[in-house]
Amino acid sequence: MERYRGITWNHPRGYCALEAASLIWQGRGLEIQWERQSLEDFESRGIEELSGLYDLMVIDHPHVGQAATTGRLHPLESWLALGELMELDQKTVGPVLLSYCYSGRHWALPLDAATQVAAFRPDLIPKAVSLPSSWQEVLEWPDQLILPLAGPHPLLAFFSICVALDEPPLSKNPITLVSTETGEQALDVLIKLYKRMDPVALSLNPIALLDRMATTNAVPYCPLVYGYTNYATAGGVDGHPLFFTNAPVFSPHRRPGSTLGGTGVAVSRRTKITPSLNAYLHWLVAPSTQADFIPSHAGQPCLRAAWQDDGVNARSNRFYLDTLTTMEHSWVRPRSPGYIEFQSAGATAIRSGLLQGDLPSTIFARLTCIAQKSLARSEHVASASG
């Protein structure tokens, strides 16, 4: 029996796909003991620490720059043939595989796909009220609304609004966040929304927010939150099922503003990739696993065919089809070393600015300073290692 130690995170209501898969693979001579960490640790805990403790790690893609520079992970190119990698790129939804690429190699195998979308409770919305599809309509929304503002999520919301304004962050220069006009306009939207929110938003990550929407009648609509399909499935969570739709746009011809999430499975460099482990990793992204096993066990597939599958959508109130456009156009965060430091500090700056009632210009000046310092160091490390 081959034995491995893995770490994943506390997916809403239990991330049971990997644990359930372990039961199947024990019968094939491979045992993986999965441990869980919080969403906050998943978003911030470093590869260097994890790779010293675990063989397999479920990671967030912004960590792969650290993986590339420290040499702590096996790149996919070491165990996936080029043809297989190209095929996987064609089959995965949106920029999922791309998100794990850094310095010319891929550092994690896509497991599931997620991005920010809109969530709502149709039973709490009067029939005469139309659901917003644009940010202008969001600002005019007559009822309660909320955003997750704990952890990195104020910054991720800011990123997504910039994307919707046709200026993806860092697209013009690796250390220039966005133009002053776009940055201040995006922050102005966040400030206006925050003034209408329950202050509890400052302590809510996406899971806590979706729990609140499902189990109370406090708020019927959230314009931007990472979508989790089990909240759309009757019986998947306590309370009412939620419905999801594409993230808001600024005009019909522009892309929805959304920052890619999701998870990938990384393999520690200290771990030997045996034929059995290789077979297990291939099985995780096989079409039948993605369209059947993972959705049946509270997981969220990464293959486009699964997102378009009628059966998968029937079980999730069309979660996948109704958010597919946003998924396909989602923006990929930087993956350079030092980005996580910027993400943490930048989110804190926006959260503090909202709480203090600062002007958009004040928050943006602070955010720009943090970006230039953190990302300049990040570029220096990347250049030295490459």
Description of the structure:
By secondary structure, this protein is of the alpha+beta class. The protein folds into two domains: 2-114 and 261-321, 3-Layer(aba) Sandwich (D-Maltodextrin-Binding Protein, domain 2), CATH 3.40.190; 116-259 and 336-385, Periplasmic binding protein-like II (D-Maltodextrin-Binding Protein, domain 2). 41% of the residues lie in helices and 12% in strands. The protein contains 16 helices and ten strands. It has helices at 16-26, 39-44, 47-51, 64-70, 82-91, 135-139, 153-164, 180-194, 206-215, 275-284, 287-296, 304-307, 310-314, 324-328, 339-356, 360-385, and strands spanning 2-9, 30-37, 56-59, 101-102, 105-106, 109-112, 116-120, 221-226, 243-245, 263-267. A five-stranded mixed beta sheet has the order 2-1-3-10-6. Helix 1 (16-26) links the parallel strand 1 and strand 2 (30-37). Helix 7 (153-164) packs across helix 8 (180-194) and helix 7 (153-164) crosses helix 15 (339-356). It is globular, with a radius of gyration of 20 Å. The protein starts with a strand and ends with a helix. Residues 380-386 have low confidence and may be disordered.
